[in-house]
Amino acid sequence: MSDEKEVKKEENTPVEDEILEFEFNEDGEEDLKKTLKKLREDLKVCKKEKEEYLIGWQKERADFANYRKREDDRKAMFSEAIRERILTRFLTVLDNFNMAFANKEAWEKVDENWRKGVEYIYGQMNTVFEEYGVKEIGAIGENFDTNIHQSMELVPTEKKELDHTVSNVIQKGYKLGERVIRAARVNVYEYKESGK
């Protein structure tokens, strides 16, 4: 009886039923050549399917890795854009500080303790900008560059060496890393020979 139970267990295994289908010849004997041929064909089909599944899995894995990279890049760009937008908004505050400091006569009349407090706040803001990689651009005497300067007015000069250099900075410009977030507004010297 125990042999019968074992045979029944084997018969109920569907995998074995599919794999071990033997063909028999007229005498009822197993035709091993046909069975072997069929097994080889089944093996070829299985290998082909395995390759298709493997290639499909590898493609999906590569697609997912590319998706994650694009998503990380998108997040970084979004974060950078938000940071740039916030910092750009605070540039107006720095401009107001600079305008207040530019009027030396009025600034000197302000109470000294209050003036020191305002200068301290200005210093803190500059420190924050430095921590985020924001740098000032545009200085008197540098060559005019359309990438970092915006020309507001041409100032005639008789000195040839000053031609196309910055004569005055009207509003400071700023870079975030290597990217210009605001061009410097400047006046530019233009050489004109005297008498012409």
TrEMBL record:
Similarity field: Belongs to the GrpE family.
Quaternary structure, from the entry: Homodimer.
Protein known as: Protein GrpE
Keywords from the UniProt entry: Chaperone, Cytoplasm, Stress response
Predominant cellular place of this UniProt entry's protein: cytoplasm
Localization annotation: Cytoplasm
Function, in words: Participates actively in the response to hyperosmotic and heat shock by preventing the aggregation of stress-denatured proteins, in association with DnaK and GrpE. It is the nucleotide exchange factor for DnaK and may function as a thermosensor. Unfolded proteins bind initially to DnaJ; upon interaction with the DnaJ-bound protein, DnaK hydrolyzes its bound ATP, resulting in the formation of a stable complex. GrpE releases ADP from DnaK; ATP binding to DnaK triggers the release of the substrate protein, thus completing the reaction cycle.
GO cellular component: cytoplasm
Taxonomic superkingdom: Bacteria
Any one Gene Ontology BP term: protein folding
Pfam families membership: GrpE
GO molecular function: adenyl-nucleotide exchange factor activity; protein homodimerization activity; protein-folding chaperone binding; unfolded protein binding
